[in-house]
Amino acid sequence: MAAVSGLMWRPLEQVSGLLRRHFHWTAPAALQVTVREAINQSMDEELERDEKVFLLGEEVAQYDGAYKVSRGLWKKHGDKRIIDTPISEMGFAGIAVGAAMAGLRPICEFMTFNFSMQAIDQVINSAAKTYYMSGGPMDIETIEASVMKTNHLITVEGGWPQFGVGAEVCARIMEGPAFNFLDAPAVRVTGADVPMPYTKILEDNSIPQVKDIIFAIKKTLNI
Question: According to CATH, what is the number of the domain 140-221?
């Protein structure tokens, strides 16, 4: 109480001076940059780090980009690394996809998101699917080894039963050496042979479900 009473009898200026705390201010630890500057610096770093990296797009070179995202890169890295393209999003997006397939590392700039929709076929078909559509010949040796080990074969796919992957696998096994190791006929679990319905309940029932796979297992094991 003595300390408190002592403060109470002091002038207001002295009391506020005793209670005021002083903090030590330092400069911000992080560098403040805009999104545009951050993208520009990132591309510059990658261009310096890997000679396979290059930038292509509309007005990205001599004009420094429509929104100056590529400012200074053409002067620093030259025509072979910073490439101006015609106004054809579909065209230079395809070039970028092909270059990536050949082992290069392209940065493909679309001026705006709206323009990128002009190249949507290259994005969702060429870029997204080519890898999964070019995995090489079907590895029938691994499938045969599995059949010889388990003595059974069940294929599961979401497509229609006719001309599907499961049909091809079954045909290969029937024609190959693994056929003699089967203890039961091969079983296919596929989608229903109907056009895909839009109602969720009907859609769920038109593609393979867990219960369908369990039924196929019990059927081939005769249990």
Answer: 3.40.50.920
